[in-house]
Design brief:
The complex is a heterodimer of chains A (285) and B (159). Chain A is α+β, with helices and mostly antiparallel strands and 285 residues long. Helices cover 59% and strands 16% of the residues of chain A. Chain A has a domain of 166 residues: 2-Layer Sandwich (Heat Shock Protein 90). Chain A is built from six helices and seven strands; from the N terminus they run H-H-E-H-E-E-H-E-E-H-E-E-H. In chain A, strands 2-4-5-7-6 form a five-stranded mixed β-sheet. A two-stranded antiparallel sheet of chain A has the order 1-3. In chain B, strand 1, helix 1 and strand 2 form a beta-alpha-beta unit. In chain B, helix 2 runs parallel beside helix 3 and helix 3 packs parallel to helix 4.
């Protein structure tokens, strides 16, 4: 009896410690998520600033243009009519610019909202392509002049997942891809449906991963980036989210000097929505 | 090099919306000839054969940044006024541009239309004054060499 009680106590302790470790890991991932968003802020501000600058300028021009139109319409001569039509054309072009500008700002909102939201506890159905597009909108702000991005997204069913944590996975992979490129380069993001799971791939034309580093890249604290750039947590958090949390798989192919492709496979359905099944799956992988 | 009868302003920004906004503003408010480009390499080709009074360039652009573009403009048309328009409040790039390019003005986005117009008007006036000065100097050089010629002929006549 006493032995049984002791065993139960140790099992309880183990459960408690595991819960604490998981909570600590989650807090670390959240802190990392905010920190990685913080690093993108300069680019995001610039991305919003440019369309905003156009909208502000256009608004002042439109008001003045409309006033000029009013005066021209009061004197309906041939010259006035021609000038009025010219102004109308200019105003039309400004309205089109304003629409594009608003769309550019709007594209940043879903990603920003996702990073600002508190971690969700329950599994939700989400559009993986939309998550990738919103994350890409944030990352490209920083490097659009240097890196071209290509999307090759297949039609996918909704995926049962923790969407906010997937934003973090793709943010880490896209930032890594962009940072691996010295000078000009390209990043291709693709998705495919493969039976009862989906695959998302991020391919860069960067420097590649050296063979001696490959075994370590998912290890917490391992980084080849300079101090202040890499914390060594990005890929370990990706692995934790994809494998431990979703029961998925993450892997990569790399050719030094040519580039790296990371693949993430996620099951369409979570066997046990509280994540415990995902954990048992991960032990097999 | 082709010369416009009206003042010519060149705008280069990889963001089409910025080029359209500034072009529409200048078209509605002024009589300037406005040449807008989203590709700095095309803009650099344009200034090789077309005279401009003011060149306004964005800072961060693919292929060629604003400082590199204005550097090319300085080589081809040193009298054209150079203005950098940037979304990055980056003091380092401002100092570099001012030192390397003899930059006339450094403007930040979002820009104020009235301030932009004033900078462009002053820039046009400056470019035209420099051109007039250059023409006067070459007239003076010509007159000076004519005078030297007359002087040497006079000397030969009397000696």
């Amino acid at each position: 009896m006493a032995e049984d009680a002791g065993l139960a106590c140790r099992v309880d302790d183990g459960e408690r410690l595991r819960a604490q470790l998981e909570a600590a890991n989650r807090r670390l991932a959240e802190a990392y998520s905010l920190a990685s968003l913080g690093r993108l802020v300069t680019g995001i501000v610039h991305e919003m600033n440019t369309p905003l600058a156009s909208i502000l300028s256009n608004n002042a021009v439109m008001q003045h243009g409309l006033e000029t139109l009013r005066k021209l319409l009061a004197e309906p001569g041939e010259g006035e009519r021609a000038r009025a039509l010219e102004i109308l054309e200019q105003l039309r072009s400004l309205a089109a610019v304003d629409k594009t500008a608003c769309e550019r700002i709007s594209a940043l909102i879903p990603g920003l909202k996702a990073f600002a939201r508190v971690e969700e506890a329950a599994v939700q159905k989400a559009d993986l392509n939309a998550i990738l597009k919103s994350t890409l909108a944030l990352v490209r702000c920083e490097c659009r002049a240097r890196v071209s991005f290509e999307l090759d997204l297949a039609e996918l069913p909704e995926v049962e997942c923790y969407p906010q944590s997937l934003y973090q996975v793709f943010l880490n992979l896209l930032v890594n891809a962009e940072q691996a490129i010295e000078g000009q380069g390209a990043v291709k993001v693709s998705t495919r449906l493969e039976g009862d799971r989906v695959r998302a791939s991020v391919a860069d034309t960067g420097r590649g991963i050296r063979p001696e580093d490959r075994a370590n890249i998912f290890r917490p604290g391992f980084t080849t980036k300079p101090v202040g750039v890499g914390s060594g947590l990005g890929l370990s958090i990706c692995r934790q989210i994809v494998v431990d949390r979703h029961g998925g798989r993450i892997d990569f192919e790399s050719e030094p000097g040519l580039g790296t492709t990371f693949h993430v496979w996620l099951p369409l359905r979570q066997a046990n929505p509280d994540g415990s099944a995902a954990r048992s799956n991960s032990q097999e992988s | 090099m082709s010369v416009n009868s009206m003042p010519a302003v060149l705008i280069v920004d990889d963001e089409e919306m910025v080029v359209t906004s500034i072009r529409a503003f200048l078209k509605l408010e002024t009589d300037f000839a406005v040449h807008g480009f989203t590709d700095p390499e095309q803009a650099a080709k344009f200034i090789e054969s077309n005279q401009v009074d003011v060149a306004v360039a964005d800072y961060i652009m693919p292929k060629m940044n604003g400082i590199q573009f204005l550097g090319r403009a300085k080589q081809v048309q040193p009298e054209a006024t150079r203005v950098l328009l940037t979304g990055y409040a980056d003091k380092q790039s401002a100092i570099q541009a001012i030192n390397e390019l003899a930059l006339f003005q450094y403007l930040e986005k979002p820009w104020d239309n009235a301030a932009l117009l004033l900078v462009i008007q002053n820039g046009i006036e400056r470019a035209q004054l420099i051109r007039t000065l250059r023409d006067k100097i070459s007239e003076l050089d010509l007159a000076h060499s004519n005078l030297k010629d007359v002087q040497s002929r006079l000397l030969r006549a009397f000696m």
